[in-house]
Amino acid sequence: MPNPTAAMLVIGDEILSGRTHDSNTHHLAGRLTDAGIDLKEARVVSDDRDSIIKAVRDLASRFDHVFTSGGIGPTHDDITADCIAAAFEDTIDVRADARAILQDHYDAQGLELNAARLRMARIPSRAILIENPVSKAPGFILENVHVMAGVPRIFQAMVASVLPGLTGGDPLISETWRVDQGEGDIAAPLAELTRDHPNVSFGCYPFQKDGKFGANIVARSQDRQTLSAAFQALQETFPQ
Amino acid sequence: MPNPTAAMLVIGDEILSGRTHDSNTHHLAGRLTDAGIDLKEARVVSDDRDSIIKAVRDLASRFDHVFTSGGIGPTHDDITADCIAAAFEDTIDVRADARAILQDHYDAQGLELNAARLRMARIPSRAILIENPVSKAPGFILENVHVMAGVPRIFQAMVASVLPGLTGGDPLISETWRVDQGEGDIAAPLAELTRDHPNVSFGCYPFQKDGKFGANIVARSQDRQTLSAAFQALQETFPQ
Fold it and tell me: Does residue A216 belong to the interface with chain B, where contact is any CB pair within 8 Å?
């Protein structure tokens, strides 16, 4: 059975302007691979209502799971929650369960749960909350979309809390073999290996070190025996 | 007049599996901002023919410029050039101009221009070549799509060679002001500033340092005078 599929949607002008480097996609990619869920697409869109709604609808209809990052804070440009509700024609308002979490948190710090902070309790009516162990303001799951914070430490904590609830497939396992030849010499024998081992995917990642060309060849499969046979053939094709 | 718009398309399973971290989008984002071209969307898709063609057509129809990275090497999974040709219903084959560049390069190194390396001379018939000062295999421009290598050093060199040929708008200029308060306290006054200065965009980027909350507020505008007035108001709203 093929693995479940997923897409990542990063929301934020600051990524597209080059101010901030997105590290959440790379983090999610690794965790999904470990879980046997295939990340098929990643997107970054700006803090624009129409762009967010269009992207969410497109990705949610094409993949089993969608993960979003960014735009759920207290400021005026944090519009993700409202856009997700609109994408699925749900209503959205301050919800008692989310409000209670924030009230406890700010009470404990002696801070006021003001109007801006209360925006973080705006949750679509049909959504399930995602716990935020770092700064309390929750994420949420609506249909197949997981809405999470953009701050990497919070994003990672939320990923860790939602992944165990998803059914994964067999994780992809991989073996890497270093070949000290240029990619142009590797390509033909590698194409032959690819034909001979249809259930293994081979990737070729060239590098240049101390003026010499080489490449790491990565063989990937969901089945350990299939991978072993292909990896042995790979080593025999490019002996060291 | 609004700035020209752009999208980035990263092609490669290795990004989606978490093996490789994409740094090209961040690089392009910064260069486009300097050039007065607005990066509106970035996408990562896998080495899959249908996914690449669909993404190229969608982005090329919605934005003034598209930049791609990855999938133009000599191996079996390098299918970007063929997909771009298909997306624009152009023919593709080994082209004499690209072949001559590779022939010179490999002759000089005493290496054979074998079938695998010759794949890198496959260029759509209507495309214009992009120079590759690092490893010679050219990129190309077809319609509004700039097709470039995935290796960061080559990608950056290609960006440097194509950007001067594009007409940009007024570059976005920005000023940053650090506020030592939590985002929840900043949000309401910041929303008021946003209303008072409609031609300036304000971004709020929270941080936590030594246990204290703060945020960098970035004001951006294409006009220096407009920005100055807004930045002065920002400083007065959040005095240090």
Answer: no
